[in-house]
């Protein structure tokens, strides 16, 4: 029976370990935290958006980096196979808006519990509070791992699934990158992705805590066509903007404009044409013609947004509505359809959902997840230079790569015995 060492008890590591057991292998799973799946507990605001119920074309469209590399593993263990797996493992799932798949219970705990049950049923040797310090390889073959306490664990194969650098409080500190690099692997530059954006304008701070639904956002670098366009929900913060719409925008910004200024343009009424916005304003102004302008916008904007819109429109808030000129009204209509902010950068790893960058995929066999440099070394999840947009796609990468790494480790392991 082949003995496979899995380093990292997150989504990819647990699925890799389960896959090893299903293939009849023995597994030793090292996790430096006090429990498995620590990052899973906080994904999807604690609900765990575990995959997306979409077709394969859409799945690949949502992969931001090296989508072709994932072709084989996605077809080997796709999103519907993942849903079936969790259903059979005692975690019923449901599909919500945008194809997002969650446990029926709305508790991330149930996702982790399903994986743990399978691990314990297969008699996995789970060692918590145990940190792997380095890989042990000889003559281009993996031998095992050295632990932080200096002890050594030998095995037929090692699966590195230690995650990236995002949410460092969950134990993600890039140690897997260091271990892979020490054995000759190239690590593509890493930086935070799916992360809130920082904004230059001071008025943003006054909107802290305000959530806007059904807005359209466009991100521009210089005067080119938009880097990103999307529709959905966003949130103003003390430093700028966040929320699902912004996290997706950050993925494009990080790829093309990291560290440079960009313009974020919001359409607050995307369902209305500019002409319809003007008609709406005319109607609201007629209803409130004897009120002060500042007291006439309650139906149009959330109360927190009103002072900002008045200030940016340049219209005197004390002015009576019937005194507002056509030019001023047109200016307000334009602002509603094109509210602009200057993006100055992103927040750090502590607030990033994922890490972009990682082990160079050209050094990994896309069919097996095995290193092309060290025989018997496999990679899964955020270790690899692959990432996706929000909506369950990054966890799908974790499940698919972990699943294949586990199968391949058993089928190809045993070189050291």
Q: Can you put this structure into words, describing what you see?
A:
There is one protein chain. The chain has helices spanning 11-22, 56-61, 71-76, 79-88, 108-121, 175-182, 203-206, 244-256, 274-287, 306-313, 326-337, 393-412; strands at 3-7, 26-30, 51-52, 63-65, 93-95, 100-103, 125-127, 132-138, 141-147, 152-154, 157-160, 187-193, 197-199, 211-220, 228-236, 240-242, 262-267, 339-346, 354-359, 377-379, 387-388. By secondary structure, the protein is α+β, with helices and mostly antiparallel strands. Helix content is 30%, strand content 25%. The mean pLDDT is 94. The protein contains twelve helices and 21 strands. The protein is elongated and about 85 Å long. Helix 1 links the parallel strand 1 (3-7) and strand 2. Strands 13-16-15-14-17-18 form a six-stranded antiparallel barrel. It has a five-stranded parallel beta sheet with strand order 7-2-1-11-20, with helices on one face. Strands 3-6-5 form a three-stranded antiparallel beta sheet.
Profile the largest sheet: 6 strands, antiparallel, barrel
End-to-end distance: 10 Å
**Shape, please?**
elongated
Count of helical regions: 12
Strand content: 15-25%
- Total strands: the figure is 21
Mean pLDDT: 94
The computed structural class is: alpha+beta
Low-confidence segments, ≥5 residues, pLDDT <50? Answer: none
Estimate percent helicity.
25-40%
Cross-sheet strand order for the largest sheet: 13-16-15-14-17-18
Radius of gyration: 25 Å
Quick recap of the structure?
This protein is α+β, with helices and mostly antiparallel strands. Helix content is 30%, strand content 25%.
